[in-house]
Amino acid sequence: VKIFAPNIEQRDVVNHLKGSPTGEKRNVLVESARLARGNIQDLAELKVSEFDAVIFPGGFGVAKNLCSWAVDGKNCTVNEHVNSTLQAFHSAKKPIGLCCISPVLAAKVFPGCEVTVGQDKNVDGRFPDVEIASAIAELGCKHVCKDVNESHVDKANKIVTTCAFMCKAPLHEIFDGIGTMIEEVLKLA
Question: Which positions are tagged coiled coil (predicted)?
């Protein structure tokens, strides 16, 4: 297992205690290295031949830094190294795991794929971002409704997705969903 991140400037830096931008400038690779305790490499150095699968965690950083979804929605652009990494794993027929908001990367890069970001209706208040499911469909992809503790496998494209924090749920349910995503990625590897 190796961890990678793009060597780019963050769109913005947020004080998560206050929920507001700080005005600071930070680098995605440097900030990712802080979280990974230094054991990380530039995404541009990833060689698909050295790995059995790739997994993209979610988080709002994906929507701000790995692509421009936070600003542009379905009209977003995907970072060139993220795009080429996804394309390389897909071309090599190696599995791709995506959780939380990161399934939008697949929806943008692989028209016609199947992904989940949870539900397409916010019936019980657990899925406040249902418009993302609609945007995925508008991109020509199939959004598959799943609960937080489930994942969806697009067998044709070897893409496994789960909604994670796209659902307001207890951490153990989010953990279970991510666990099923990992299990399914490993089955495809």
Answer: none
